[in-house]
Amino acid sequence: MSKIIKFETERLKLRQWNDNDYSAFADLNSDPKVMEYFPSLMSKNESDEMARKIRSLISTKGWGFWAVEERRSSKFIGFVGLHEPLPELPFSPCVEIGWRLSKDNWGKGYATEAAKEVIKYAFESLELPEVYSFTPVENSRSRAVMERLNMVNTNQNFEHPKVPVGHSLREHVLYKLTKTGWQNGAVWS
Length: 189
Prior knowledge:
alpha+beta
C-alpha cells in the first residue's frame, strides 16, 4: 500500500474514494449527457465496480483517478486524475490524464482547475516525460479542456479497441503534453 496522494485547489479537493461516492458516481454514469461519448450508459453494478477498481489502484500506487469534491459543499462531483490505459492502445505504455464530472458541474472550469494540479504532480513528483489524453473525435468539450491545458493534438487518431467496430465513437483523437512543453509554455493564469 502506498501513501495516498491528495490535492486541494482553490475550489476543489482531489482525494481517495469512499463508499459515499458510489451512489453519486452511479448517477453520473447513468446520465445520457455525461455518457454521450461512451458506447453505453453504466449500470449501478458496473459503476460500483469501476469505483472499486479506481479506489484499489489509488491504494496500490498512491495516485489514479481521484474523487473530486467541491470544497464549499463537500459534494462529490466526479473524478480527475492519472491512469495507465490499456496495453492494446497504439501509444501504450503511457500515462493518461482523464476526467468525468457531473453535468451540473460543467462550464465552471473544474476539470481544468483539477487537471492543472494533476499535471504538475505528474511532471514534478512522478517525473513523467509526457502525459496523454484521448477522447472520441466528436467530443469537443473534452478536447477544449485538453487545449486549455496546452496539450497538443498529435494528429495520430486511432480506433479504440474497446469500442465496437463500426461504432461512431470508435475513432479517437490523441493529445499529448511533454514535460518540456509544460515547463516552457504551460504557464496557466
